[in-house]
Amino acid sequence: MTRKFFALFLATFALSVNVQATTPTTLGNSAITHSNELSMDNTSSDKYEWDFWWNASCDLASNYMWRGFDQSYRGGNGNMVDPSFQPGITIGYGKFYINLWGNASLLSDYKEIDMFLGFEHENLSITIYDVFCGVGSDFNTRFFDKDMHNLTATIDYTFFDRLRLHWATTFIHSSDFLTTGKRAGKRAFSSYFEVAYTQPVKDLFDIEITAGASPWTGPFWCPTRVGNEYDWDNPAKGFNVTNLSLMFNKEFEAGNVTFPLQVGYIYNPLSNYHYAIVKAGFAF
Question: Which contiguous run of DSSP H or E holds residue 199?
């Protein structure tokens, strides 16, 4: 076990034993908001009721953005807009849940399926998820082809219902290995750290400010830029900020259905790309 991996394990353990406040959480690539939250039973020693629950959602986004990178065009083709259709469904029992989430980009033929296993307690959320993705014929590769998957663990912790800390580390991926330096050939454990602050503006909307970075060389997901393309064979070295965003969020309700709307701006300092983002959908 490397010192980096051991330090990451200690940080994850320290966060997981500090549970204090209650907040919605953002899980991986899709936002999961329970309409059927766990209820506290005050007549039975403050134990949570354990019931089955579920929800479903579908969004249409002007771009599929992940950690500050556009996943479909990835900076190429000269076209910075690619509408993406993003359905999801979650089935849970008590604090545990499984989630299936998908993306189908309408112009670039980029497709993705994410599978989550998660645990949520008050302000703490822990997930393990697998991603199967590809462009065009790449997505038609056999589902059980190990080179088409990655396994990532995440932890989210929120303070005061407003300040959210997010950490994600990839443990399995065919390209997650260092290629230069003393540790060449060793697994990189590509990671991502994010800090997000949400400020309600009366009952009108919420403003969310986010800053995210790769804490060390991440060959799995953090490339350098060459011209208008991303160079995936030469990952960015060391610490790199990849995601600075300002979002305006609003939810409308009609019965048991909610209609989230998100409008905002994303800047990736590493690639020097700017994005105007619009995302709308429904959930029930």
Answer: strand 191-201
Strands (E), 25-64: 25-27, 30-32, 40-41, 47-48, 52-61
Residue pair 218/238 in contact (Cβ under 8 Å)? The answer is no
Minimal CA–CA distance to 196: which of 220, 161, 154, 170?
A: 161
Answer whether 0.85 is exceeded by the pTM.
no
How far is 269 from 260, CA to CA, in rounded Å?
28
Is residue 15 classed as helix, strand or coil in its secondary structure? helix
Tens digit of pLDDT for each residue in 67-106?
Answer: 999 887 654 545 568 899 999 999 999 999 999 999 998 8
Over residues 146-204, the pLDDT tens digits come to 666 789 999 999 999 999 999 999 998 888 999 888 888 899 999 999 999 999 999 99
Contact (CB, 8 A) for 207 and 225: no
Cα 74 from Cα 64, distance rounded (Å): 10
Whole-angstrom distance, CA of residue 204 vs CA of residue 168: 32
Structure tokens at 266: 């994303």
Q: Where are the domains of the chain?
A: 22-38+51-283
- 137 token code pair: 């014929």
2 SS3 class:
coil
Beta bridge partners of 105: 84
The half-sphere exposure of 169 on its side-chain side, counting CA atoms within 13 A, is: 16
The answer to whether residue 119 scores a pLDDT higher than 50 is yes
Count CB neighbours of 267 within 10 A: 16
Domain at 22-38+51-283, CATH class: mainly beta
Rounded to whole angstroms, the Cα distance separating 90 from 37 reads: 13
Q: How many CB atoms lie within 10 A of CB 59?
A: 22
**Tokens at residue 174, please?**
């065919």
The one-letter amino acid code at 213 reads: A
